Structure formats: C-alpha cells, structure tokens
C-alpha cells in the first residue's frame, strides 16, 4: 500500500477491478474498470465533442492487437479499449475500496482510494458493460468524469443532489479542496506560529475536506440500479428504455386493434339482427 497510490502488476488485476494510470507526470489520473481479457471500459468525451475542448484522455487512433479496441457508441463517452491503449505507456495502479479513515487521510493525493465498500466483481462488470452500450451522460471534469464512472460501477452509489458542483471523484475534490483549504485557513494565521503552523492548519483542512466529500462518507448518496440510471439522472433514453417504450407502444396498438375488431363484430351482430327482423315481417 503506497502513500501516493497503489501500483500493481498486470498479473495482479482481475475482472471488476477499478484501475487507473497517472498522466502528465502525476498531474492527473485516468480511471477505468478492468473487465478481463486485457480489456478496460472507461469514460471520456464523446466522439462528436467540440474539438476546441481539451480532451483529458485522447482516444486511441488504432490498435494492432485488438480489432475491437476503441469501440464506442457515437453518442456516448464510454469506450472499450485494450489495457495497453488505456495505460498509454503509463504504469498500472489499483484504486482501493473499504479503506480505514486513517489510511484515507494518510494518502497524499485524492483519487486513489475511498472508504466506500465495493460490490461483487460480476456486478461491477455488468454495470460497466451496460454503460458501454447505453452511455454515462456528458463528460464533465468536476461533476462527471472517468473516476466518477469507475466509482459508480464499483459501488452503484450516486449523489442525490447534483447542485454541489462536484461528483464522487476524489481527484476533483482534491483540486477544489486545496485552494479552498488555503483560503479558509487564512484567518488562523494569527493563531499559529510561522509558516510551519500555517501549513499544518491548511493540510488539516484539506484532509478534512477530502474526507467529508468521499462517497463512502457523504449522506446525500443512494444506490441506483444501472438500468434505472438514465431515468434517475434525466439522461438520454437507454437502449433498454427504448425497447420498453417500443414494447409499450406495440401493446397499445394491439389493444386498439382488439377494440376495433370488437366494435366491428358488434356492428355485424346488429346488422344481422335487423335482417332477421325484416325476414320475419
């Protein structure tokens, strides 16, 4: 268990693991779910995103090893790539779940672990593969990024209140928390002696901020089934939802047809009765 992050070998990971790799000399990390067979499902910007927007993780242009590497729905940011393309020559790290609060606070960087407990591997892989076909909404660095995607796949937890401007990502919490901690610790300047004391107070507030925003500690999260995710967040209709709508429309059409046939049958009976009366007369 490293202080910065948990580096692992390829032979150590298994399907359902939340993995990540550092980019730009430890400036930020990119996260995904390992689904087995040297394949990773992860989240980035959609294919048709504005090219002027900075893409934090450029998609692989081609892969000589796996023909399906880079599979991605046209209107989705969820993508399937091989492990090599995911790592992009970087090292492999494993995100830790169910860590003790003291371990969580000892980590120097956000986005490496959580206090939340992970679900069984088969559930994690199911969520990742389902979202590969149905999407995970629009990519947002602070509110809906690759780490948010991986954490949801591992836990099924989703914040109830999206107005906070921050998702489940510990990485985003750290980015927001450091300057905020420095700002809030300024009034303590008169109470602490020298720069060392000031740094200690700032670090303490930074760690406290990371802790209270962790998905395993927050009270505004709930378990959401992946099949209900799109409806819960008001995203575009998922493939399953479209099938259900189509099925409902088909059932309604059948019901209408039955009503029409019954009405026609009733009219035929009335006409037959009138004919019988005329013959009797």
TrEMBL record:
Residues 20-162 form the LRAT domain. Residues 262-281 are annotated as: Disordered. It comes from the Eukaryota. Residues 262-271 have a biased composition (Acidic residues). Gene3D superfamilies: endopeptidase domain like (from Nostoc punctiforme). PANTHER family: OS05G0310600 PROTEIN, OS09G0526800 PROTEIN. This is LRAT domain-containing protein. It comes from Rhynchospora tenuis.
């Amino acid at each position: 268990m490293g202080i910065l992050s948990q580096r692992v070998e390829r032979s150590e990971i298994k399907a359902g693991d939340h993995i990540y790799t550092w980019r730009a000399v430890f400036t930020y990390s990119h996260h995904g779910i390992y689904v087995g067979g040297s394949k990773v499902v992860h989240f980035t910007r959609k294919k048709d995103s504005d090219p002027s927007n900075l893409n934090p993780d450029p998609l692989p242009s081609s892969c000589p090893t796996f023909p399906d590497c880079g599979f991605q729905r046209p209107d989705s940011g969820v993508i399937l790539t091989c492990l090599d393309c995911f790592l992009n020559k970087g090292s492999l790290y494993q995100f830790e779940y169910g860590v003790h609060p003291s371990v969580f606070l000892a980590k120097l960087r956000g986005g490496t672990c959580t206090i939340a407990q992970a679900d069984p591997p088969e559930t994690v892989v199911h969520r990742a593969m389902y979202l590969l076909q149905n999407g995970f909404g629009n990519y947002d660095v602070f509110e809906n990024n690759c780490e948010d995607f991986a954490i949801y796949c591992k836990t099924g937890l989703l914040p109830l209140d999206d107005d906070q401007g921050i998702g489940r990502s510990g990485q985003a919490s750290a980015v927001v928390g450091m300057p905020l901690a420095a700002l809030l610790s300024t009034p303590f300047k008169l109470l602490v002696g020298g720069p060392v004391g000031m740094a200690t107070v700032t670090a303490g507030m930074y760690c406290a901020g990371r802790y209270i925003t962790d998905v395993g500690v927050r009270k505004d999260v709930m378990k959401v089934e992946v099949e209900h995710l799109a409806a819960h967040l008001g995203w575009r209709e998922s493939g399953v939802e479209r099938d259900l709508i189509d099925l409902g429309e088909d059932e309604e059409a059948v019901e209408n047809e039955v009503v029409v046939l019954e009405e026609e049958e009733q009219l035929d009976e009335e006409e037959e009765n009138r004919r019988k009366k005329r013959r009797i007369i």
